[in-house]
Prior knowledge:
This protein is α/β, with parallel strands linked by helices.
Amino acid sequence: xxxxxxxxxxxxxxxxxxxxxxxxxxxxxxxxxxxxxxxxxxxxxxxxxxxxxxxxxxxxxxxxxxxxxxxxxxxxxxxxxxxxxxxxxxxxxxxxxxxxxxxxxxxxxxxxxxxxxxxxxxxxxxxxxxxxxxxxxxxxxxxxxxxxxxxxxxxxxxxxxxxxxxxxxxxxxxxxxxxxxxxxxxxxxxxxxxxxxxxxxxxxxxxxxxxxxxxxxxxxxxxxxxxxxxxxxxxxxxxxxxxxxxxxxxxxxxxxxxxxxxxxxxxxxxxxxxxxxxxxxxxxxxxxxxxxxxxxxxxxxxxxxxxxxxxxxxxxxxxx
Length: 320
């Protein structure tokens, strides 16, 4: 039978929930606060977790975010159990990645059914693959809190980056200026030589140069952009189909006579339910774009696509 981890700082509530689930045939593991909940999840890899929202040391909201963020525990369904029932509480519970939100005035059959439903949904989401069962991991309280700090720092970075890209829509007028603004934000968080946005409707390709780059690298970059556009659209896109718009105020293109493109990275830009363009990066350094760069592009992709697409639709296009 499924193993369920229950975390609640109230001994009475732990006893009530444990009794209900044990009578339903579940194996129960208990924790007294959010830190112990995280420790227990990594140690025993339960089939489901029930978290009280208001707990000492670590709230259920934060514990849920931490567990859903880690590959070792992300697939474990989480039910938030709380006395809070405002719309904002339910919304915040959903934002943690929790699979269900129940108030503490539940009836026993309701809890058992909710648990069965989230476990079944998790099974279906895996498509027949068995659940992940990593080796048990023993975490000390300080290690749990360090992971929380790292997660909060990353979420702040993500929110700040998204807000900065979105702010471009208010601060910048003109389509090319909007693209330049987006690529300028990207240049502060990803190291690249050249970056471009290729619009798929008319193949206009807006490129900015931030480091000394050779003509050879430039041509190789455009060839890679054409290949990426081909993959995205499903129809052949040739280099001569692309219409370049180059921003190189400091004359860095051609300053390097021998460099070649060593690393290329691209990502489609989706807005309004369709792919409107491609975002591409080039570097003469091998393996220049690691997982961190890819994750940053994923953060930028949605707000950048919306800002760029809206500027395009607004008819603010300017021509160099």
